[in-house]
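fyi for ur records
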Amino acid sequence: MIDYAKARNITLVFYASPQPPIVWALVSKLGLYPYYDEWLRTFATMTNFYDFSRLPEIYANPETYFANDTLHFSLPIGEKILPLLLANQCDDAHYCVTKENVENNITQRKAELESWLQNNAYQEQVIAHLPSSIGNGLDLPAVFPAIYQPAFKGFNVVRLLNTEYYAIPETFAPPYDFLTIMKGEYQGMLAGKTLEEITQKITAVKH
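which gave:
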């Protein structure tokens, strides 16, 4: 496509769409960052491009710009990106990546992510406590706690990450905190890999 456009004097402007830092923290958790780094390097040998995941607004307040999901950014980010694309000035100040500065861009990306994690201890702990199975094709809705109704023998049964089951005493009312579940800090809670296993554990406790 790049060669086709050049041969016909068509200007192409490429950019990496912005994503919130929690996405890159998860990419790092799964050990996938080296693959993304290599993609950046390879892309930079073919053409210059903009890397908008490094916009400081995103790191300062990601919830504002990604209110619904991690793929679709809000209007203010679009208003920030559009003038940069129209100006098409390829330099560090405009988040432009070239084969000459791609290594510096990779280094800065990781430093910015590390700084964000240091300033967001809760999110850092959530990522740290995620099991490795989080990368096995897990749908986003399956990440959040799903409570089975009705309660079973004084416990609320909760499915988390689609393959983890927890029984939380009814003395703790929902909604439940993701990290508190993952750390096992609801007093008296039980854990199991299947619904059958967790109900058996509840029955054993009640006996």
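Strands lie at 15-16, 49-51, 96-97, 146-147, 155-160, 164-169, 190-192. thats all i got for now
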